[in-house]
Design a protein that fits this description.
Mean pLDDT: 84
Number of helices: 22
Radius of gyration: 23 Å
Shape: globular
Order of helices and strands: EEHHHHHHHHHHHHHHHHHHHHHH
Strand order of the largest sheet: 1-2
Helix content: over 70%
Distance between the termini: 63 Å
Number of strands: 2
Low-confidence stretches: 2-14, 557-569
Length: 569
């Protein structure tokens, strides 16, 4: 172990020293982790390759594996780092605003997930369902948004790996990024989603066990209850309450809106939805909800500890907070456990992103567009594998930008808010058209970008307009949640009452919170445009057609294409 000195400018704040692992130790840990996951993936048979198994593992995965995989995918390195950042910025309510809303959004998925599975039992991607429902443009919008989102997710996870290695060893940021990227690709490349699924079970066990050990050890090593009694004077009144207005408006509400969009639009979640046995969807998502919330809120409290003891993030980078706290207060052995925990979390999500990207390219780009009705399973598999290689390379390049993970998550999730209502309406309302879907997404994106980056001065009539649309967006979010669990009548009632009740409080107020304003506009504008363009449609869609258009690409015998799978209409 080496000791690195962290100096503080303020005399009121103590100086810290934190431990670093030797380069050889870090390399051995990484070799053991990625070598072990690679060996696990070799248990998957390679002689009987099947494109449907490569993407959804034949849609018959049991409860234990599915719940573990969902938890491992949702608990990623960004969850650790961003939750700690939230705790450091906003105090004791920060981790709760991060972890609780993320957990609730896992729960939110399952009622809509059952609808997706009922309409298309053999689906591989959500965009594939949109292709069967509307056609090419809606499909490509959803597929394109997932490609962007998954590449950004890869970048975030590789960034986390680089920050971890640079903090805990003499190795550089770039070394951590390269090892994580190449290691994850090595065990995912051949078997795709099945490898991701199998390794998730081991990774989630390691993550949750390590978190249960590390959180109390950091707490007691840092001073135990003295952290709160002596550190209370270092935090503001707003940071000391569970009901922080600043935390809710700047973190909780934007993240709540963002993760709702992640729940509906993210292919990594949809892929597990299409893989689990249909009768196990509810218990799988319930288990993942509890596991995620407990783990992430607990890890986020490490950021609160750092705030209260007066620790400053190394190099001014909030992504360093968790590894910094762990290396300062944990023994060398436990630091090694912590290292594996974070590597496991980022790898479990990175392999999910690679599997998601390969499925999108195999199904939505090649299978439904480039193949022109002549799908070749062997070609399809190579499309998926080449996609993984290209995506890993892109993620490694973008990771060098070292963007703040929390800001990135909120931005991408809010951007996806434009597709939530059009997607959900498309699988329940038979009047939604391809034109309504496409135009609604495009127009809402314009409003989102104008509000988020303040391309025009947010004042006067424009500010009032955006705040009205934001109130509508808030009503849409709450209405959709009520609709998913309690049905159409309750959903409409909650949505309308919430929208009308929030208009006046938001006027003249929400313009000061551009992140939340932009996020809610994505929902509000897309809902308004999609509904306006659909309500006059006199040719209702027959939902039974979706199951006929979305079928397996390959029969049991390798090399055989399922005839129905290539039928466009």
């Amino acid at each position: 172990m080496r000791r690195r000195h962290l100096s503080e400018k303020s005399l009121a704040v103590p100086a810290f020293e934190f431990n670093q692992l030797q380069s050889s130790t870090v390399l051995l840990l990484l070799l053991a982790f990625y070598g072990g996951t690679f060996l696990i993936s070799t248990r998957i048979g390679r002689r009987k390759e099947n494109v449907d198994g490569y993407m959804t593992s034949s849609s018959q995965v049991g409860f234990g594996v599915s719940a573990a995989s969902m938890t491992a995918t949702w608990i990623w390195a960004a969850s650790f780092y961003a939750a700690a950042t939230s705790g450091y910025k906003y105090g004791i309510s920060g981790p709760i605003h991060y972890g609780l809303w993320g957990a609730l959004m896992i729960l939110f998925i399952y009622p809509f997930g059952r609808r997706f599975r009922a309409l298309a039992p053999e689906a591989h991607t959500l965009a594939e369902i949109m292709h069967a429902r509307h056609g090419r443009s809606s499909q490509l919008i959803l597929a394109g948004s997932n490609i962007v989102g998954s590449v950004i997710s890869l970048m975030a996870n590789f960034t986390a790996a680089g920050a971890l290695v640079a903090m805990l060893s003499p190795l550089d940021f770039v070394h951590g990024v390269l090892i994580a990227g190449i290691g994850t690709l090595s065990y995912t490349l051949w078997s795709g989603f099945r490898a991701s699924l199998l390794t998730d079970v081991v990774q989630v066990g390691a993550m949750m066990g390590s978190a249960a050990l590390i959180i109390p050890l950091v707490f007691f090593s840092a001073g135990g209850t003295e952290i709160f009694t002596q550190g209370w004077e270092r935090i503001s009144a707003d940071q000391s309450t569970f009901f922080s207005k600043q935390a809710f408006l700047e973190q909780g509400a934007p993240y709540f809106v963002a993760v709702l969009a992640y729940a509906i639009g993210n292919q990594t979640i949809a892929q597990r939805l299409f893989a689990v046995r249909e009768d196990l969807i509810k218990p799988t998502f319930l288990a993942a909800t509890v596991s995620y919330g407990a783990t992430v809120i607990g890890l986020g409290m490490i950021g609160v500890f750092a705030l209260m003891i007066g620790m400053s993030p190394a190099d001014g980078d909030h992504n360093n907070l968790i590894p910094q706290m762990a290396s300062t207060y944990l023994s060398p052995f436990v630091v090694g456990i912590f290292f594996i925990m974070v590597i496991g979390s980022l790898s479990s999500t990175a392999d999910s992103d690679l599997s998601a990207l390969s499925s999108i390219m195999m199904t939505d780009i090649y299978g439904k567009n480039l193949a022109r009705g002549k799908v070749r399973p062997a070609t399809m598999l190579w499309v998926g594998r080449i996609t993984m290689i290209v995506a890993t390379t892109a993620g490694l390049i973008f990771a060098s930008f070292r963007i703040d993970i929390l800001d990135l998550l909120v931005f991408v999730g809010a951007l996806w808010g434009s597709i939530v209502f059009p997607v959900i309406a498309s699988v329940y309302w038979n009047k939604v058209t391809n034109r309504a879907f496409t135009v609604a997404v495009a127009v809402s994106l314009v409003f989102f970008i104008v509000a988020r980056f303040q391309l025009l001065p947010i004042e006067g009539a424009l500010a009032i307009l955006l705040e009205v649309f934001a109130a509508l967006g808030a009503g849409v979010v709450l209405g959709l949640m009520a609709f998913g669990f309690f049905g159409k009548r309750t959903g409409l009632t909650v949505g309308v009452v919430a929208a009308l009740g929030l208009v006046v409080p938001m006027l003249g107020f929400l313009r000061d919170y551009p992140v939340l304003l932009a996020s809610l506009n994505a929902y509000g504008v897309s809902t308004l445009v999609c509904s306006a363009l659909s309500i006059g449609n006199h040719k209702p869609f027959d939902f039974n057609l979706i199951a006929k258009r979305v079928t397996a690409f390959q029969d049991d015998e390798p090399g055989t294409v399922a005839a129905a799978s290539v039928s466009d209409r």
